[in-house]
Amino acid sequence: MTDMQPPPAPRSAPGHAPGRTPGRVPAVELLVKDGCHLCADALAVVEEVCGRLGVGWNAVDIAGRPDLAERHAEEIPVLMVDGVQRDFWRIDPVRLERMLTADRP
Fold first, then answer.
1. What are phi and psi for residue 84, nearest 5 degrees?
2. How many angstroms separate the Cα of 23 from the Cα of each of 37, 43, 64, 68, 101?
3. β-strands 84-88, 78-81 pairing
4. Is the separation of the CB atoms in 79 and 85 below 8 Å?
5. DSSP of 34-97, one letter per residue?
6. CA 100 to CA 104: how far, in whole Å?
């Protein structure tokens, strides 16, 4: 009888975010609401980083989305990348750039 070992678990390539296709442009959304002083700061960060990298993004006002308002009421602004919450309150420009360039050459 031979010694059978399970195959190794799949691993991401260095710098590759799991679940992301290399070279694909990530979907970036910033959840915001009126009267939120942190939202203005976050909008400026996302606009600067995404603009510099040529990555499109959307600001989503949670006032028109009761599902998001209920879920994220205390965390606004919220940064979503490819549908996954990545940051909230204060958006770190270095971290955002790292996330957006992880799969780019």
1. -115, 130
2. 34, 25, 32, 29, 9
3. antiparallel
4. yes
5. TT-HHHHHHHHHHHHHHHHHT--EEEEEGGG-HHHHHHHTTT-SEEEETTEEEEESS--HHHHH
6. 8
Q: What is the pTM of this model?
A: 0.74
Q: Is cis: bond before 77, omega within 30 of 0?
A: yes
Q: What is the pLDDT of residue 73?
A: 85
Using CA atoms in the order 53, 48, 78, 41, what is the torsion angle rounded to 10 degrees? 170
Cα separations in angstroms, 84 against 3, 12, 15, 69: 40, 18, 18, 16
Q: How confident is the prediction for the chain on average, in pLDDT?
A: 81
Smallest CA-to-CA distance from 82 within 105, 102, 63 is with 102
Q: What is the DSSP pairing of strand 57-61 with strand 78-81?
A: unpaired
